[in-house]
Amino acid sequence: MKPSRLFFCFLLSASPSMAASVTWNEAGPTNNWNTTDANWTGGASVFTNGDSATFGAATGETVTVDAAGVTPASTAITGNGSYTLSGGSILGGTLAKGGTGTLTLSAANSFSSVGISSGTLSQTTGAISTALVSGGNYTALGAGPISFTYTAGITPLFFGATGTLTNAITLPTANVETRFSGSAGGRITTFSGLITGGNASATLRLDNNTAAGVGRFKFTNASNTFTMSRFLINRGGLEFTSDGALGNANNDLTLDVTNTADGTGLIFGADNITLNSARAVTVATTTVINTQAFTGSRIDGPMTVTGQTIKTGTGNLILNGTGSGTGGLQINAGTVQVGNGGTTGSITTPVNANGAATTLSFNRSDAVTYGAVLSGTGSLVQSGTGTLTLSAANTFTGATTVNAGTLNVTGSSAAAGTIAINGGTFKFGAAADPIGTYTAASLTQSAGNLSLDVSAGSKDTLNLTGNYTTTGGGIMVNVLAAPNVGVPYNLVNYTGTLSAHPPVTFTGLGGSRLAGTVDYGTGTNSVISVTFNGVIGNLVWTGANGTSWDTTAQNWLNGGSGDAFFQQDAVFFDDSASNFTPVLSGTLQPSSVVFSNASNTYTLSGSGSLDGNGTLSITGGGTVVVNNTNTLTGQTTITAGILQIGNGGTSGSLGTGPVANNASLVFNRSDTAVFPNSVTGSGTITQSGTGTTVLTGDINSSGFIWVATGALQVGNGGTTGSIGANPSSLQVDTSLIVNRSSATTIAAPISGAGTLTKLGAGALTLSGTNTFTGATTITAGSVVMANPDALAGSPVVFNGGQLAFNFGNGTTTTVSHDFTLPATGQQQFITTAPTSATTVRLTGKISGGTAGQTYRLVDSNVGGNHNNVLTLENPANDFQGRVEIWRGSLVFTSNEALGNPANGIRHESENLNGALRFGADNIVLAATRAIELGGNDDPIDVQAFTGTILGPVSGAGRFVKQGTGRLIMPAAMTTTAVSSIAAGTLQVDGTWSTSASALTVAVPGTLAGIGTINRPVTVNGTLAPGNGVGTLTVGNTTTFGAGSTYAFQIGDWTGAAGTGYDQLASTAVAITATAASKLTVVVDASTMVNFTDANKTFVIATGTQSGLALDNWTVTTTGFSGIGTWKLQVNGNQLELVYALGTPFDNWANSFGSLPANKRGVLDDYDNDGTPNLLEYVLGGNPTLMDGTAIAPTTQQSGSNLLFIYSRSDASELDTTQTVQYGSDLTGWTDVPIGATSGGMVMIAENDVAADTVQVTIPTTGNPKLFVRLKVTKSGS
């Protein structure tokens, strides 16, 4: 005994150090986690410090941790229930959060590490100590590192209070959304630990849990290296203390807050933060950008504004990147500065300077145009050394200040604003005409210039409703063309006073025959005016003294006398000259130039230029070649002849003035030359040089445009330059290039063998019926086909841009072009508006691309329901790279139509109504063609076909089987989101990974196959295990809902489960069908062999059984010849389908297929003929026909006897007792038993296989009346 006792003592002493694995029991006696209460299962019912604790239930509850704390080796949440761990602290070990539910921590814990694979981890107020309220650390998570390993988008962390998370965080490497969430109330969650990991295509979402919440997330660690496609600030705010705190330089920011409260939006948390140029900012909804009081808050990356941006904080926000979008910018405090002294920084959105203390400032060293509307009562400041042009109809009433450079107002402004010129130049005038009128409240000038233009019959006018106060600077009068002599030009009208006489300088008069004088007016309500004196010359070119056109050579006649040219003279060229090659020297400013030559060609050359606002006219029918560089801003008119720009070399230009072409305009240069002029008229335009002519003006000509040699380019990367809708036709024999950042349209029909090249980010719409045959190369932006002939027969080469289809609603259009994809993946095709329901069939060959790149083939670029369809139909397609569906449907008519067999498919999350769709029968997608489901509902539609996906399916999206056909999936499915079968049959022959998210079979969908599904399955439609006869395995619970169907196939009556008949192998089977909406088991024996009509039990499902009731199921058959009965029963962990051959009566009743199952009892009378089923059975009747009279027994008199005669079925001999009874009244009866053979009063005639004839002879002597009846009793009843 001693050894035994010693051994027992050893066990006792060892047990405290042997840690167990225990699982929380929700049915335990208490909800306390301590070392005394028996609330656990597994190794022990009582927890011991050092045990590994698991919470794995599907419901969850609140667990109160012992006040002294517990010390598990590990804590794991594996079930889908939501747990709250409150009370005391968890004093060590690791924390692993799985399952779909929420884990709420509300104490100061000390985990060694935290891992989150699914579900949500919530940090509440209860976890915040008193010290933490004023800036302590979150303690519920301990100090260990936190790592995320999930592969589906979840909300991993929820913060319910202000505090700092010092833990190191590793974000998931999968392409999923990570969401940090917090409750409302102005709470600030600070992340000071190092954040690493991530995925370049993923999203980090910051969500304040309520739409009106003002809590914020603050990132302070400048060494963060995590990678994300974007920060999505959904609700609440993002504050950062450095650019590095936002992780990888390419992590973009998307503001989708819809809240203007303080503490929301994007918040600069320190001074002199510059968001780097690779970090794009997108404002999608109404959102705040708060600089607080910091003056150096700068955004160097591109900023797209489609929503409303509210600038708050008294500091400066410097926009030093490229701005785009048509949303709004409202400055509620401080300054927004565009540019930082260099050549970058722009905005395109309207600006509201909302308050007198707000400012919009421009600080660029080059020329920039702001074309949106400026409103409000704040200030506008031009502080850069470049030129700022305001071109919109502005309504702001605040102060305008010019500190440097030039402010040029070509639009309009409200009259209430003031002007201050402290340096630089202020000028105004219309966009197409430098002459204009401007009204302001007052002008204060300490330096710089007020610039005013004067032409022949027009002038600038500045109207001041107040004072003109000047302490420095002056007025610069620009003479654009010869002014009228002796007529005062009123330039400045002031209602108030003029404090001093600003000096006036003239430009454009030097070297002319004119001089100007100034009148400053007197007192109030007066005018500053200038008057010109002198006489301009009217000169005719002779060339008598050579070819020089300067201000000294006597090559002109002035009224018949030789003369030299003076500035502002009017000059004429005709056929009377001695030479026709004027060589210009210096800057020449004629008031007008007229070429009336008809037979000779004039060529202008030299280092000099024609300048100013004078006019140029070609009237004589001859040719004028401009081979020098000119800077004219006045009108050029071609009424006859040819005006040729360049002579085959690298020189020749007009300037910037508009051109009215009613004859011929020709470009002939060998280099790239910009033509900024607008062109109108009915004349022809010809590109004849070997170089490239770049049109940056609007060509509204109605004549013929011919690109004969070289290249004609529309636009130079900006928003100007167009051909418009007016040209009668456009013939391209060489090259047409379009390079704009904004949209433009070419409506003229394009012909020729030349090429079309699309550059620039803008969209080019081709709306003409085109016939050109050269290649179309799309390098940037998009080409929009407005009709099927827009690209004629042109092959399309993608080098970076997209092709958009803009066909009619509901149309189906065939596009037969060949396409070459670029080396780098991108969006390729753009469908039209989401609800247009257009179908585009791509029948040409698609080649090119690069393996590993992603090419988005379907996208409307607009949110909403997407009914557009793109079809790939060419089996010769050999492009490489992954295919992406973003919005709309992609249809393929063969596996080969999807290009290289290794090309995967990505079905993206924004595809609400679209699908990946099989377009023909029996398509088999290659095993190497992997499919990724990006998010939300990602339908795969086989239509009415049978299709097979041999490759794996993965991703975070929700798989939806659509179409009435059969989809066969023999490969793995690793997506963990909910899945569904909306219609048709899904045949699962592969393995689906473990997930808590269910696969739901809707009506009229069917789930079939021999694979394994490791997730819950809910059947509301049909379950049909096997692909023929087979076993379908479900590694979770299978639920048969109300009205569901189990399609059960028997192939071999004598076979085993899985080979002879179907079986469902499930962890559990739950039947939730009801008596009103039953589970129907349909027995399909149409291909069955080896049948013998005998009792048989089939195990149709295995696993824990629940829910089967007497009245919530029914069995029907198809192709089954047996006459027995079927029933469902539970036998342990088996759901059995039992076939019972039954009594002869049962077999007889079951042989009538139209007889309802509930009308097959012995006393039932379905046909209402007065003859119950048992008598019909004996008498050979049909229980579904009213034949009671026809089969009834008969009687006849035979002497002193009554003969009682009836037919008896052979089968009824086996299971009935038949007795003929007679009597003189209805109370006493004499029995005549009917046996198998004749005897006594009974005579039986056997009729082979037909019914027997039974005759009973009943004496009538002494019975004046007689009653006779047939009594039938079924055996056992």
UniProtKB/TrEMBL annotation:
Record bears the keyword Signal: yes
Keyword Signal found: yes
Matches recorded under Gene3D superfamilies: 2.160.20.20
Signal sequence coordinates: 1-19
Domain of life where this protein originates: Bacteria
InterPro entries: Autotransporter_pectin_lyase_C (IPR012332), Autotrns_rpt (IPR013425), Pectin_lyase_fold/virulence (IPR011050)
Keywords: Signal
Protein name, as recorded: Autotransporter-associated beta strand repeat-containing protein
Organism: Luteolibacter ambystomatis
